[in-house]
Amino acid sequence: MDATGADDPRTPEDTRTPVIREVDFGTARLLPDVDRPRAWLLTVDGAPQSYVDLDDPGHLEFEYVRRLAFALDAAAAPGRPLDVAHLGGGALCLPRYVAATRPGSRQHAVEADGGLLRLVAEHLPPVAAAGVTTHHADARDWIERAPDAGADVVVADVFGGSRVPARLTSLEYARHAARVVRPGGLYLANLADAAPFDFLRPQIATVSAVFAHVCLIAEPAVLRGRRFGNAVLVAGHEELPIAELARRAAADVFPARVEHGAALGRLVAGARPVADEAAVASPEPPRGAFRVG
Predict the structure, then answer these.
(1) Cβ distance 53 to 37 under 8 Å?
(2) Of 14, 64, 89, 283, which cross-links 10 as Cys (Cβ 3.0–4.6 Å)?
(3) Strands 151-156 and 83-87
(4) Shortest CA distance to 196 belongs to which of 124, 267, 113, 110?
(5) Contacts of 172 (CB under 8 A, 6+ apart)
């Protein structure tokens, strides 16, 4: 169904007009970027979910996605294939990036919204050579069934609307994620909060309880409590590539800082890991924080 409500067999590449469809968890829109001929923004109920450029998968529009990509770039030698599990599928922005930068990688993308999966498969399918297998499943259920040491990188970028679901914020969940990540691998999570960080601080404590090494990438304005925003958590069983992450984050068009060690400890300031029975979703963003027209 097209933006007018009529059936339209043409793809977005043919029409370059918005595609609007009811999916399992809301109203999805594929919106063309007028400045890039094959680029599309995916929103669900007005909240931006993914941005993909079919001609240039290396173009990452969202700042937090670039920060996740910095960690993926530092996860292994350049070009080396990786086994990556993506919790949260969206329009498969990061899987496309990994396929382009690390050919031969094996990737699993887990998405709970089957209607969204079908929309992306119909209009923005990744090329067959991308090595991406999609799964219509709940992310927590999938990670609990995943094999031990089955992934070089686990990326958690799951939002119900604009909030991280409570089921993906607990110690029990984090233990499964840590079990799936191989020695030398990474766990990456996209989180969102604002001062006094009542959600973010316990999340750092929770992940720190199951991974020996943790750092946080965020803009200084977010860390100083001046605004609500994304924070990318990076964790591993072994030493993290802090210097590389810091260099890449500082050089970004929207510079970010890497908090680790004593500075991260001061941010956590006594917060404790969160068990299932006490887990809560991330806070509702302020009006307009992550929405587009």
Answers:
(1) no
(2) 14
(3) parallel
(4) 267
(5) 275, 276
**DSSP code string of 220-280:** HHHHTTSS-EEEEEEEESS---HHHHHHHHHHSSS--EEE-HHHHHHHHTT-----GGG--
Q: Which two tokens stand for residue 230?
A: 């994304």
Q: Is 117 exposed, middle or buried (0-12, 13-18, 19+ CB in 10 A)?
A: buried
pLDDT tens digit sequence for 192-205 = 999 999 999 999 99
Residue 4 burial (CB count, 10 A) = 9
pLDDT tens string 13-34:
545 799 999 999 999 999 999 9
* Beta carbons of 292 and 41 less than 8 angstroms apart: yes
| 93: nearest Cα among 138, 43, 57, 48 | 57
Alpha carbons 243 and 228: distance in angstroms, whole number: 26
Quick: pLDDT tens for 259-292. 999 999 999 998 999 999 999 999 998 876 654 4
Instruction: Dump pLDDT digits (tens) for 208-242.
Output: 999 999 999 999 999 999 999 999 999 999 999 99
